[in-house]
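User: Teach me something about this protein's shape.
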Amino acid sequence: MDLNWLSIAEAHLGLKEKKFSSEDLVDACLAQIKKGEYLNNFLTVTEDLARARAREVDAKIAGGKEIGTLEGIPAGIKDLFNTKGVRTTCASKMLENFVPPYESTATRLLKEAGMVLLGKTNLDEFACGASTENSAFGPSLNPWNKEFVAGGSSGGSASAVAAGQSFFSLGTDTGGSIRQPASLCGCVGMKVTYGRVSRFGVTAMASSWDTVGPLARTVEDIALLMNTIAGPDPYDSTTPLVEVPDYAANLAKGVKGLRIGVPKEYFAEGVEDEVRESVMAAVKEYEKLGAIVKEVSLPMTKYGVAVYYVTMPTELSTNLARFDGVRFGHQAEGVEDLTEYYKTSRGEGFGSEIKRRIMVGTFVSSAGYADAYYKHAQRVRTLIIQDFAAVFKEVDVLMAPVSPTPAFKVGEKANNPLAMYLADALTIPPSAAGVPALSLPCGFTSSGLPVGLQIIGPMWSESLILQTAAAYEQVSGLWEKRPIIGG
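Assistant: First, the predicted structure itself:
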C-alpha cells in the first residue's frame, strides 16, 4: 500500500484500525520527499520532530485511546507561518536564519489536533509571485512535468500535496496564491471568506486581502481541515463571531436544483481553449447532476488586476518596513552610517520582485498620490464587491477557470512581470470581494498538465462550495490520478 497517497480520511481510518502506524505515514512521506527532492518543495524538513510526534500518537493508539481526525497525519506548512522553534524564512534571504519564538494560530490549532509537522514548504518570497520562481532558494517544480512551474505563491505546498509528499498543507491566498498553484498542480485548494481563518502569526503581505486556507487531495480533506482551523481568534480582530458549521456534514447532499452562474468575462480572450473546454465540460456534468446553469456577467472583472496591483504593493511596502536589519532580519556588515545600513540590509535581504513592489507601493502611498491611486483603487474595489453581491441574488455559486492557462515553463515569464501578474486575472476579483472560492481538478490538457475549476460563492458559503465540489469529485475520479515522481 502506498501510504503517502492516502487521503486524510483514509489514513485516519487505517490508524484507528491499526493497519499501519503514524510513523509509517511519516516514513512514506519522507521517502517521497527524498524521491522528489528535485521538485524543491521543502525548505526545511523536521524529520526528528515528525518522528517524535508520530511515536506519541502511536503510543496513544497502542494504549487504546481514541484519536482525532488529524492526529498522526503528516503535513508540510507554507514557510510564511510562524512555527515556534522551527525556522521560518518566508523564502527570503532577509529571514534565512529566523526561528520564531511563537506559533501562528492556524498551525497551533493543527498541532493541538495532532498534526505531525514534516517541515516548511517553498513559496515566492514573502508570497509575492505566481510561479514560486521568486523564492530565494530556487523554484518549486510541477510534479506532472518538472520543466513547468508549480504556480505561486503557495507553489511548494501545492506541489508537495500533488506529489504525495504531504497529506495536506496550509497556504495563503491574497490574489490567488492557493487556488492558482492548486489548479496548476492538480490538487484541491480553498480560499476562504476574508476573516474566516485567523492570520495571527502569518507574515503579512497585503493585510486587507490576505487569507489562510488548506490544500489537500480531496474535498472531504479540505472540509476536515476547515473544521479545525476556521473560527474567531482574539489575536486577529478581522475574524468575526460568525458560526463555524460542520463543513463535512453536507458533502453528500448533491447539487440538484443548485443555481450555477457562468460569468462570461471569465471565458474571454486570453483563456486557452483546453482550459475553457475542461471547465465547460465540468459545468455540463453539473447539469447532468441536476444543477441549473445560466450565463451571468461581472463587468468589473476587467479592473481586478489593476486594483490589486495598486492596493497590494501599498500594503506590502508598509508591512515589510519592519524588516530593516535592526530588530531582526538580514544584517549588513561593514556599514557605519545608519541610513546606508538600512539600504544595504534591505538591498541584500530582499529579492528583485519584492523591491519592485515596495517601490510601487511607496510611490502610490506617498503624499500627493495616495488619493489619486490607492484611494481611487479602493473605490473601484467597492464596485467589484457590489458586482458579486448583485450576481449572488441570481445564482448560488459561480463556476469559471482558475487560471487562464495551465502551468507554464520555468523561466517563460520570469522577465515579464506584466505577463506574470495576469496569471492571477481570474482569481483576483473574488479576493477583492472577500468571498470564498475553491480550485478543483477538472481535467488535463493534451500535454498532461492539470486544469482547475474555480467554484466561487457568497461570503461564509464555504459549506455550499464544498458540497458543490464534492458532487463533481465523486463522478470525475480525478483525485486518484498520480504524477510519476523521480522518473
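Now, about its shape. Residues 371-391 form the longest helix (21 residues). The mean pLDDT is 96. If you'd like, I can walk through any region in more detail.
User: That's plenty for now, thanks!
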